[in-house]
Amino acid sequence: MDTQSWKDVYKGMSSDNIKGLVLALSSSLFIGASFIIKKKGLKKAGASGVRAGVGGYSYLYEPLWWVGMITMIVGEVANFAAYAFAPAILVTPLGALSIIISAVLARIILREKLHTFGILGCALCVVGSTTIVLHAPQEREIQSVKEVWDLATEPAFLLYAVVVIIAVLILIFHYLPQYGQTHIMFYIGVCSLMGSLSVMSVKALGIALKLTLSGTNQLIYPQTWAFTLIVIVCVLTQMNYLNKALDTFNTAVVSPIYYVMFTSLTILASIIMFKDWDRQNPTQIVTEMCGFVTILSGTFLLHKTKDMVDGPAMLPVRLPKHGDEENGFGQEGIPLRRQDSLRLP
User: Fold this and answer.
1) Residue ranges of the chain with pLDDT lower than 70?
2) Which ranges of the chain would DSSP assign to H, the alpha helix?
3) CB contact at 8 A, 152 and 196
4) Among 317, 337, 332, which residue's Cα sits nearest to residue 248?
5) By the number of CB atoms within 10 A of the CB, which of 90, 104, 137, 309 ranks highest?
């Protein structure tokens, strides 16, 4: 009886959800690799020009950075298509795969350190994401982009959007000029907040294109073009501040923190806009929350072990003081110059 009920629950994934799942997995592979390629390009550009982390744009003349950008675009296109077929709660958590890819490639190619507990953190992120995917709700049936616009203009989501925009403006104009080089959460915060809005617009645009290709033209509605404009603005903002984060901080740390914040805010936005939890029972909701806790635990491990190395000769961690900024340490103890973070005697 228990076996039969398990099959009844999990055998019913629709063809659209399967398409979304495959596209999301492909997206994570490309995006995970793009982090490393872009980081290599940023390092090469920074060696001969002004680094992106301090406001430079010399990376635009670096071919390797463009290879990484194209790789990321391919991944984002696959991700874009995935949202047209499956709910955000199913698609977004699969970004955990990009964490594993970027962390492993960062260790191999960029020679960045990843502690054993960091590997455990990656595993926890995957376990948590899998838990969420297995209990994700079915996609909402939508017949027109105007339905999505109606959902986006309901008071609850409008309030969320206003709060996000205000928070982003405060981060950009008040906190980033002072703390951007030493506090990773400010760059990632801007990317993640804008990302939650861009995903909702991407999903709306994807639905519009899917309906158009199936014979119901959605391009005649102004709502489709409004969502397109929002996507462009949000994605450009994300890319700009993600470049700054990658150029300033360790890739193996940027990737998981960005993933967790982006995923959490995107699912929150989806819950508010598409009312995903209205189609789930309490057990499914609690299980999804447990998945989030697991992901957050993995990210905590990655963040706390970012400057640790395996082995008995590991140096003690130095606590920052007021005078440390002149010696290369920021207010969180994050080295301003990564190569000085662990000096051998």
Assistant:
1) 1-13, 49-56, 252, 302-303, 306-345
2) 2-10, 15-48, 63-85, 88-91, 96-108, 116-134, 145-152, 155-170, 176-179, 184-213, 222-248, 251-274, 282-304
3) no
4) 337
5) 90
Q: Which of 208, 215, 196 is nearest to 88 (CA)?
A: 196
pLDDT of the residue at 239: 87
Give which of 173, 191, 150 is closest to 275, Cα–Cα: 150
CA dist., res. 323 & res. 138, Å (int)? 55
Q: Bridge partners of 329?
A: 335
pTM of the model: 0.71
Q: CB-based contacts of 326: which residues, under 8 Å, 6+ apart?
A: none
d(CA 292, CA 263): 9
> Quick one: which of 336, 23, 19 has its CA closest to 182?
336
> Can you give the pLDDT at residue 164?
97
